[in-house]
Amino acid sequence: FRALALTHAFNAAGDTLVAVALADVLFLTPDPSEARGNVVLYLAVTLAPFTVIGPFLGGLFARFPIAYRRGLGVASALRAVVAILMVLNLNSDIVLFPLAFFMLVFSRAHGISRNSLLPVALEGPHELVAANARMAKIGVVSGAAAAVIGGGLATGLGAISEDVGSRAALFISVLAFAISAIAAQGVPYPPKPELQGVRRGLLRVARSVRLAQLATAGVRFINGFLLFLLAFAFRDEQAGLLDFGFLLGAAGAGYLLGAVVAAWLERILREEPMVVAALAIEAAAAFIAAQSFGLVAGAALAAAAGFAWGVAKLAFDGLLQRSVSHDDRGRAFVRAETLFQLAWVFGALIPTAITLPSSGGLAAAGILALGAQTLYVAGLIRPRTSTPSAGPAT
Fold first, then answer.
1. CA 101 to CA 84: how far, in whole Å?
2. How far is CA 246 from CA 14, 94, 242, 303, in A?
3. pTM, whole model, 2 decimals?
4. pLDDT (tens digit, 9 = 90+) per residue, 287-346?
5. DSSP secondary structure string, 64-89?
6. By CB neighbour count within 10 A (0-12 exposed, 13-18 middle, 19+ buried), where does 336 fall?
């Protein structure tokens, strides 16, 4: 677990440093229309890895479970290489966006491998939600430390040249990814598949997992919508890099608090009520922020959205890890992560493509969260209907 946590910590730090570098180059441009165009293109790039590489990863993990462990080290090493290429091509959009695509592909491979290996890395029968919460806290703390370093470099060295700070942040991310790749060598290999040489059929999961997956996707959709609605509202007010850092820091702090609370809630609740609570928190926070929007309200809303996503995601991960066999876990995580990323991108695209008033957008997000919560609860309490048969099926 320590080795898995270490590779996750440095991978999260590298992710944050890359995000800081790209935000300074793509988002904080003088022309608002150019910024929106850059963000739309970047969102398309974030979606592409799932539509292109998702089916490939699912088949790879199902056929060769050893790919889980090797995926950690190889993905981090390749991300270090891509970061070096980003440093050399930071001002070339033609090269930068394809590099961002590969950076995200390898990030997904690393994340899916980590989630699939977590039950194997535990030394005893620990609660999976609590273990996921520990991993989340480690990632947030390392990401926050990297954000301070990257933001400081982008702000301080930006006075020398526009992209010196971004290049410095990317260079440090190379070191972070390299350490992550080295730490991955200490993670054990998973057990051999139970059905060697047998071709697996369609992946089937329990109804409770499917419902939780859809509800968690709803949380992620609203999360992306709120984050980008806030970001463009701040940008229209000529907010600077420190204000955006404050916004992202609040979201990270909320996610960290969500990880702490999720580990505690797991002792007294099942995972399903935790997802319901996440939707309720998003709805309440959106309605409250719509009444008086500003920097403080925006940061509080970002923290609430991060908290809701942390609780919902950790609850769903624990439910999936407990309900799906190890042999099918990689495919299940690929499918879930693809759905979550689709939800986040489509949620983020709405305030990016359409200029929305802050109060109206926040109220709409609250209504949507309440609707998703109602549908999920209705699905949970609706009894499964089955037709009894008098004899064996023919």
1. 14
2. 19, 31, 6, 10
3. 0.72
4. 988 887 676 787 888 899 999 998 998 889 888 877 777 667 767 777 887 788 888 888
5. -THHHHHHHHHHHHHHHHHHHHHHHT
6. buried
